[in-house]
Amino acid sequence: MSSDADAPVETTTASVEDLQAQIQALEEEVSDLREATDDGGQKSMTIIATKGTLDMAYPPLILASTAAAFGWDVVVFHTFWGLDILHEKKSKNLKLSAVGNPSMPMPNAVAALPFMDSVATNMMEKKIEDNGTATIEELIETSLDMGVDLQACQMTIELMGYDEDEFYDGVTTGVGAATAIQHMADADVQLMI
């Protein structure tokens, strides 16, 4: 006479074996997918930089130089006010806007005073210097040295009346939105800052 307790053991053993077989099949499928998608090629990143303030110049340059340090192919497409980052004179005088900046420790009524952008900029520049943080110029040079393609939007150059000779040496000009979009379409990571 067989006991009812024996039946679940067989079902349990069969269920464990079925689960192990399913896990094995899934592991093989994941491995096949990894092999199919990992062509061993270079990772790529496209960053669109649209703002030309001191605080908004750092993120695209830090991310670009870091990704390049890991061997990534990196393009930073600068358009509209983002072109100020690539302009040798303007990049040395980027301001930090105090108005509407939620991180500023002052109300907007105070931040709107005519001299507050200069005060905020001076405070930030002092923090950068005291902390030993790289300047915008240093990050641009580092990025270019590491092979980052810093691109200046041709339409914006013409619209804003920029002189291409005033950009840092190594900046790519004559680039349009179509080129940026193509690189974005093929990139592993796309960011807009």
Automatic annotation (TrEMBL):
UniProt KW keywords: Coiled coil, Membrane, Transmembrane, Transmembrane helix
Coiled coil segments of this chain: 9-36
Gene3D superfamilies: DsrEFH-like (3.40.1260.10)
Presence of keyword Transmembrane helix: yes
Transmembrane segments: 61-83
Domain of life: Archaea
InterPro entries in alphabetical order: DsrE2-like, DsrEFH-like
Name of this protein: Peroxiredoxin family protein
Taxonomic source organism: Haloferax marinum
